Amino acid sequence: MRAATTTRRRDIQLAYLLLAPTLLLLLTVLAYPVGWEVWTSLTDLSPLKDGPPAFVGLANYRAFLADPEFWRAAAVTVVYAAVTSVAKLALGTGFALLLARPFRGRALVFLAVFLPWAYPASVSVIGWYWTLSPPIPTAYSVLMGNIKYAVDSAFGGGAWAFVSVTLFNIWRGSSFIGVFLLAGINAIPPQLFECAVLESKSPWRRFWLVTVPLLKPFFALAVFLSLAMAFADLANVWMLTGGRIVFPVIGTHAYWLAIRGGQFGAASALSLMLVPFFLVVLLVCFRIFDPPEGTGA
Amino acid sequence: MNPKPWWRRLGHGGLLLVATIYCVFPIYFMLVQSLKTAQEDIFGNPLIVLNPTFENFEELFARKGDVRGFVGSALRRSYPVLAWLENTIIVFAGSVAVTLVASILAAYALGRLQPPGFRWWRRAIFAVYVIPHTILFVPLYQVVLGLHLDDNILALVLIYPTLALPFCVWILSAYFQHLPREVEESALVEGASRTTAFFRIILPMSRPVVIAAGIFALGTIASDFTLASVFLLSEHNQTIPAGLGTMEVALDELLAVAGINLMAIPVVLICAVFARSYVRGLTAAMVEGA
Question: Does the complex come out with an ipTM higher than 0.85?
């Protein structure tokens, strides 16, 4: 008995030792910046002001809640996140279902579906930007220019840029989610599908009765990661719109305030306002993809 | 099973075709463009290349700021592409290695040794993803300065792993956690140490999951543009994405497209080689895990 507790205690010590590199990395890179952001959001820090920053409490947050511009950015963000997430999930599910059963050439189609995610976004976003809004005359400039002006004049300046961000996000995200859900479908025992065929003739009903419930943890994880990507997609929005933000999402709005406006306090508050919302989504997702032992699927 | 009617097969084939074109077209477009001469880029058909040439790639490496009058000498820069390539390889390989080592250790601790509250540890690590990166690079710059890593690719090797770690720790620890106890126990009973049992038994078993974590890390790291361009300032220290961001696009469009492909093709090839293991690993991790 004594030996068992000693071993257990040693195991626990070893566990903390092995956790150390990960925790050290995360703390080094994130602890100070997050602390700085929280503190700064309570001040009026700005390089444009003389003197040390003053503590202003929750004034920055309150100012945003009263600011119609903030609500516009919030609305755009929610619409953007919702539209891209739904589209990514729908397309991703489609890809996964297409690839779920064997057929000739499946390996090739699988690679094609894998490509948009594997192709590094840091550079493909540059390519997308020039393709959708070509800066110099190329063979397709006239066509793309016409589309751009048609969309912009119909929905307001910058609409085309916003559409292209959305398209890019969907293109890349649906690839990731498709491959991810395919891994999920592979995990479902084939017997279950065979039983389902006997159960119902309609593939649509089978999909909702069998596939969706079994894939629930995968869907939850995919939704969370896709939301995280969509909200964090500042770089994409920034690149694809060439810095001209006509439809601000919260991220670009905060970036704009900080880098162009020098209002670090307000910008910190703005980007932190997403966190509580995000935590709630994560906690809901945890219930689905990390259920307490014994109660899960 | 009775054979499917022809119209269902046709529909299936059509869907496959649409999906493939949708996924591949933008990449195909960029690849074709990088193989074009300037003349064909302007006057030719945008969808095909009639006289494919590698001159854009060659010029990318060879360009030595050839002078063409005053404006030419001012605008036509040469780019240290070899240095970019080298930096990119070091940063990517280094970050993926750091991510994998750290996440395997942490996942073993959480999934196998299971210290008290290990589920909450794992959730807390995963919750790192809720931190918005929007303006985080401003205070992060102070950290990098404090470590004397400004304008140094090591800064990225330090920062990049944090983008992929939470997910990698998650899938690896879920997998380790649900490997049956007996897997190690027989080795431990025979007197092998935990370390031996880990390297001889657990690690080889988890190959697909480790590969899945590695590919996820590579894909995540390779998609960063902002951090690279913020932290690497001098030309010779840049990675390819950071460097491409400084190009004069209006003048060097074809060169930049060549640069995009220069970076993308190796990454895509690595991902393609491991694509199957990636899916197998995700399946294994989630089946055991969820």
Answer: yes
